[in-house]
Design a protein that fits this description.
Elements: E1 22-26, E2 29-33, E3 41-46, H1 53-71, E4 74-80, H2 84-97, E5 112-114, H3 119-123, E6 138-143, E7 149-155, H4 163-179, E8 193-195, H5 201-208, E9 215-219, E10 222-225, H6 229-236
Parallel strand pairs: 3-4, 4-5
Antiparallel strand pairs: 1-2, 3-6, 6-7, 8-10, 9-10
Helix pairs in contact: 4-6
Length: 240
C-alpha cells in the first residue's frame, strides 16, 4: 500500500483578523509584534531568501521609499527564513556593493526578522508548498494601528512587487477610514472617492437629486464626490 505523506496545514490570517502575535530577533533587535507597533500602520512582508536578485531589488526599493511610508505613519518589517548573520551580511553587501537603477549606498534601517524555524512564516501562511517548502513567498500584510489585518497581497517567487501600489494601498486605506468613503479603481490622492450606498430608497432618491456640486451620481448605487489631494494628504502625512 502506497504511503501517503500528511503535510501540516497552517491557517493564514484573513482580512479583519487580529494580526498573529510573535516575538522575534531582527536586524534591529528583538520585536514584539504587533504590540510594538500600536498606533502605526505596518507593512509586514516576506521574501524567499537573502542574496537573491529579485529580493535585493525589492529591499533597495523599500529603503528608497521608507521615508515616504514613515511620513504616512507606516512602518516596514521584513522577514525571511534565513538567519540573523545571513541577514546582516546581505544588507551590508547591498549597501557597500550594489548599485541598481540609480540606487546605491542603500542602508536598510527597518527590521528584518530571523525566522529559521519558520514559526512566523507559518503563522502568516507565507510558506506555500506549491512554490517551496523551505522559502517564504512574497507575502504582504498591511496592518492598521489597532493590529488588524487590512490587506493581504501574495506574489510568487519569480515576481517582484509593485511598490507604487503598496504605497497607494496605505494611502487609500487611511483615506477610507478618515473620510468614511471607498476608493474606486486606480484611485490616487486627488481623485474622486465613492460615497457609501444609501441605506434606503428615500435616501437614495435624495442623494440622486442633490445639488451638491462636489457630488455626482451615475445611478442610485454609484455616487462619487470630490476630495482634494491637499485635504487627503494633510490628514495622512506627518508634518515635515
Amino acid at each position: 500500500m502506497e504511503e501517503v505523506k500528511q503535510q501540516q496545514v497552517f491557517a493564514m490570517p484573513r482580512i479583519g483578523d487580529s494580526a498573529p502575535e510573535f516575538k522575534a530577533k531582527t536586524t534591529q533587535g528583538e520585536i514584539n509584534f504587533p504590540s510594538d507597533y500600536k498606533g502605526s500602520w505596518v507593512i509586514l512582508f516576506s521574501h524567499p531568501a537573502d542574496f537573491t536578485p529579485v529580493c535585493t531589488s525589492e529591499f533597495m526599493t523599500f529603503a528608497k521609499l521608507e521615508k515616504d511610508f514613515n511620513e504616512a505613519n507606516c512602518k516596514l518589517v521584513g522577514l525571511s527564513v534565513d538567519g540573523l548573520y545571513s541577514h546582516i551580511a546581505w544588507l551590508r553587501t547591498i549597501k557597500e556593493k550594489i548599485e541598481y537603477k540609480g540606487m546605491k549606498n542603500m542602508e536598510i534601517t527597518f527590521p528584518l526578522i530571523e525566522d529559521i524555524s519558520m514559526n512566523v512564516a507559518n503563522k502568516y501562511g507565507m510558506i506555500m508548498p506549491g512554490q517551496s517548502n523551505t522559502q517564504a513567498v512574497r507575502a504582504v500584510f498591511v496592518i492598521d494601528p489597532k493590529g488588524i489585518v487590512r490587506t493581504i497581497i501574495y506574489y510568487p517567487l519569480s515576481l517582484g512587487r509593485n511598490f507604487d501600489e503598496l504605497y497607494r494601498v496605505v494611502l487609500a486605506l487611511q483615506t477610507a477610514d478618515e473620510f468614511g468613503v471607498a476608493t474606486p479603481a486606480d484611485w490616487q490622492p486627488g481623485d474622486e472617492v465613492i460615497v457609501p450606498t444609501a441605506g434606503s430608497c428615500g435616501a437614495a432618491k435624495d442623494r440622486m437629486e442633490s445639488k451638491d456640486e462636489d457630488q455626482h451620481c451615475y445611478d442610485w448605487f454609484f455616487c462619487t464626490r470630490k476630495l482634494s489631494k491637499e485635504k487627503v494628504l494633510s490628514k495622512i502625512l506627518k508634518k515635515k
